[in-house]
Amino acid sequence: MSAIEYWTECISEAFEEAGISATGVQIQLVAKSVEISHDCFGMAFGHDCIANPLAGENDRLKKELKREQGKTICTECSGKGGSYLQGPYHGSYSACWKCNGTGFIY
I need a labelling partner for 17 at 20 to 30 A (CA). Which of 42, 52, 90, 100 fits? Predict the structure, then answer.
């Protein structure tokens, strides 16, 4: 169903309930006007009918940026995230216990 078909059906039902008689052409004209008015509804009342999906994403990114800016370099591993211990036959890497291997402390 297209948008104009939806509005035509809505107008036809509204006219019938209100006891208004109109031709098919008149109903089509009213439906087209209602469709255009509906498209401008958000602009007329200062808001959009559908919430802006970027607004939430923008807020999330601002919080993430603030959190990232609050990081400090781990003093235990000097920002390396861990330490490598070399033995005589093998070596092993161990993640830092203080920063859990990230190199930063929040």
Answer: 42
